[in-house]
Amino acid sequence: MADPMRIRAQVQGNGAVVRVLMSHEMETGQRKDAAGKTIPAWHITDVTATLNGKPVLTAEWGPAVAKNPFLQFTIKGAKAGDKVGISWKDNRGETRTDEATVA
């Protein structure tokens, strides 16, 4: 299983700024290893963010996203104590979900 995401959610103005650092190799399927064999594609395909269990963001990613991707977005109306959840799924079917509290 992948390492936990680092999620930081802070109140700013009338909402919250959410910063997420995901731990994932994000292989494109085009690189070759030392033996010259192609390294199979392995990347995040779907990302979902929730605020107190309600979806606020969905994204479809492909192989062009960098290793250990960083995502930042703002949620209007979020306040201190609210729960922000981030989930991802990759092209191998692996998933990860983590949660943080808005500070």
Helix content: under 10%
**End-to-end distance:** 28 Å
Integer average pLDDT: 96
Strand content: over 45%
Runs in which pLDDT lies below 50 for 5 or more consecutive residues are none
What structural category do the secondary elements indicate? mainly beta
> Would you report the number of β strands?
7
Number of helices: 0
Question: Could you describe the largest sheet, including whether it forms a barrel?
Answer: 4 strands, antiparallel
What is the CATH H-level superfamily?
A: Immunoglobulins
User: Could you state the order of secondary-structure elements as H and E?
Assistant: EEEEEEE
Enumerate the strands of the largest sheet in spatial order, edge to edge or round the barrel. Answer: 4-3-6-7
Rg calc: 15 Å
List keywords for this structure.
mainly beta, elongated, three-stranded antiparallel beta sheet, four-stranded antiparallel beta sheet
Structure description:
- By secondary structure, the protein is mostly beta strands.
- It has one domain (6-101): Immunoglobulins (Immunoglobulin-like, Sandwich), CATH 2.60.40.10.
- The chain contains no helices and 7 strands.
- It has a 4-stranded antiparallel beta sheet, with no helix packed on it. A 3-stranded antiparallel beta sheet has the order 1-2-5, with no helix packed on it.
- The chain is elongated and about 55 Å long.
